[in-house]
Design a protein that fits this description.
Layout (H helix, E strand, L loop, with lengths): L16 H11 L4 E7 L2 E6 H17 L7 E5 L4 H11 L4 E5 L5 H10 L4 E4 L4 H7 L7 E4 L8 E2 H13 L15 E6 L9 E5 H14 L6 E4 L6 H14 L2 E4 L6 H8 L3 E4 L1 H17 L3 H16 L5 H4 L1 H4 L8 E4 L6 H10 L2 E7 L6 E4 L11 E3 L3 E6 L7 E7 L5 E2 L3 H7 E2 L2 E10 L4 E7 L4 E2 L5 E2 L1 H8 L5 E9 L8 E8 L1 H7 L4 H13 L10 E4 L35 E3 L3
Amino acid sequence: MHNKPYPLYDRENLYDLKAIVHHSAKTNPDGEAFRYTESGADITITYKQFKEDIDALGTAFYSLGLRGGSHIAILGENSYRWIVTAFAVMNGSNVMVPIDRDLPPDTVKSLFLKADCNVLVYSDSYHDVIEQIKDALDGVTFINMKRSYPGILTLDDLSSKGRELIASGDTAFIDNEIENTALAAIFFTSGTTGANKSVMLTHRSVAVNAIDAAKYVDPTGKVNILLLPLHHSFGFTAAIVDMLIIQSCICINRSLKYIADDLMKYKPTHLFLVPLFVETFVKKIADGAEKAGKAKLLGLMIKVSGFLLALGIDLRQKLFASVLKPFGGSLRMIICGGAFLEDRYIKYLRALGIDVLNGYGITECSPIVTINRNRHQRDESIGLLMPSCEMKIDDADGSGIGEMQVKGDYVMLGYYKDEQATKEVFEDGWFKTGDIGRIDKDGFVYITGRIKNIIVLANGQNVHPEELESSLSNIPLIREVIVREGPAENGGANIIIAEIFPDYDTAKAQGTDNLQEHFDQAVISYNKTVPAYKHIQRVIIRDTEFPKTTTKKIIRNVRVSYAGESCSNTVYGGRNESGYRK
């Protein structure tokens, strides 16, 4: 594999989302932009149709008086209507406010009000949510994406009205000129360690971010399945805007329960995923080999494949055709972001013929900041800094590790109506990500943790829990692990605790009955490999997964308790915790 710097891929420089839609419709009008299934029918949308659908709905919005500056919320599962709504809102110089569809009704209402929305477009699946909150939202216009209800508009009717208006000569929406530095969208952060923050992004920040990503990465093939939630900036920027630029067909997954069916149906060449999905894919492959009695054979073939690949001989598609068949048989690339991904998963999938390009992003940066390239990558890294931004490591220690701070086109305007929170994250024009990392001599960035998660021990030593979690996750039968600080049993200084959610199914299949003893011994062995101040001194086993955001990030500040706290531990194998001494 060639692994040296090489020129950027050639992409048109476009600075707003309307320009991106117009460019794809002009250069590839009959190309497949979207595919999806609705009411049992398979539907294909061309780039020309996509633009026309946006123009129709946007014209109807204008007819309702929604002309520049209106805040319009979108609530619902991923769908073609959701995507058309988003572009119709922003390309009319209004402000899109996507809301997490899995939030409870009170939180939906709270975020809607927080962003000063006056219109709520929603899918029919969430009509019950609207019924619970609409009486508290006086003067709000509600628009159902598909069905008609008394007093509620429908997206389809509005689109039909927009087409009639355009046919009669109304071109106000079509002719609208975008001010690319104006507010275009308010995205809410996922809130893994605190409340959701309302991030203000511009046309320019999202468009340039997507263009730069397309200059760095060229997906192998032209078919992508949309799996990431669209209310999250990674899903919207990477899996939609970036794909419109590259002109890759976006196949819309109906829901996660249909992933297996859609993989076989659409045969994707690349996917955008968060690490949990990547880990699940690897586990599915390993479990399949185990059940077929071919685990050892697969392991041997992976070693042979890796050896041949190092010699420039690529037989992966032939060697692992049966392994890759459940993923559609054409999958060649996964672009991964949203959380930390261990390099062992990258190496494993590469050996099978799937390249995993890991990256780093944050909602406040539209969101992509770094990414590994097709032929210039390092597995342990989160990639190279993208072109239109700068990064510095603030207050770096002797190893060059410090807070990652960013400046440039991608960075948000600030948090909506929260000047204090905005001031706290900016310093001399630099956005303080809150993430800790380093940059090597070749420009590759490595993330080591998050400032809010640092454990400061009584002796003044700082411990990055993510570093320990990465090592512990290699212990067999650990499915999820969080390292945190907690009081010692004897009431002394706080100690380091590992809280583990095991792979119970594999443990049962292997006949491992006493998981507590298994992990006790594994952690004792681990402690011998690290300095004393990094020793894990207690292990707690969970019987349920860690709670997660809808983008599958573990919410770190929600956990079970241990001895001496208000609730009891999970008990497995007769014991529920153990301590380790130096």
